[in-house]
Amino acid sequence: MASSSYRHIRLAREKPTRSSIYESAIKNHAWFDPLSEINRDLRIIEQSIGDCREKAGMPGRSQDHFKRMLELFTCARESLLDIKKQYLKTAT
């Protein structure tokens, strides 16, 4: 075997020397609970929706702004509820 072909064989690693990025992330964030984060975000959005409902009833130029914000928060809440359902479905 020529020395140049031997050099190419030695450059290829047989086994990874470290854990993958994903394995490291799982080990470092084992305490992370996505469901608690989703629930926290839902509480914040529901509080914001309540505030927008109060202010959307006030007359004036800001009424249109708060109605639009109410629509946006409602869409965000629906998206989070869908994510929560999917997470619960995969967790069981």
- Largest sheet at a glance? none
What percent of residues adopt helix (DSSP H or I)? over 70%
Beta-strand segment tally: 0
Q: SSE string, helix = H, strand = E?
A: HHHH
Radius of gyration: 26 Å
Low-confidence parts? none
Query: Could you tell me how far the N terminus lies from the C terminus, measured between alpha carbons in angstroms?
Result: 56 Å
Strand content: under 5%
Q: What's the total helix number?
A: 4
> Mean pLDDT across all residues, rounded?
77
Oligomerization state of this entry? single chain
Tell the overall outline: elongated
Structural class assignment: mainly alpha
Notable characteristics:
single chain
Give a topology summary.
Elements: H1 3-11, H2 21-28, H3 34-56, H4 62-91
Can you characterise this structure?
- With 92 residues, this protein is mostly helical.
- The chain has a domain at 33-92.
- It has helices at 3-11, 21-28, 34-56, 62-91.
- Helix 3 runs antiparallel to helix 4.
Offer a concise description of the structure.
By secondary structure, this protein is mainly alpha-helical.
